[in-house]
Amino acid sequence: MSEDKNELCPVVDLLEACFRAGVTLAAGNGGTLKVSPAGKLTEKIKASLKEHKTRVLSVLALREIYKKAFVALTTDQFIAMGRAADAEGSDLWPRFIAIDRELVSLRDGGEYPVGQFREKCEKVFELFLEAEQKFGR
Prior knowledge:
2 domains, two-stranded antiparallel sheet
């Protein structure tokens, strides 16, 4: 894997290689990385995991934040946000798009600021709740 200006690329490539190998990665206690089953990994992938461990753990933490933030959203809330997008005069959709762009920017920045991701995901969730209140059934 080549180093790139954007450090996300090697980490994404690494996660994809683990997935293709049938390996599950998870954050363990005390900043450890759980690899299951570890025996399926090549020495090259093991070395890359060790080299990029901090970033891999950050990406795994972000995945958990996303899962917690968005798994709680209901179909009705998604439908309400769709109605907000179509509603004349509603600022919900532009606010959602702005936060989404900020999330993409944070993700692509390679720094993985977990606190900022959590804050933005909470704002997205709040927007969906507001959409449900204004445009729900």
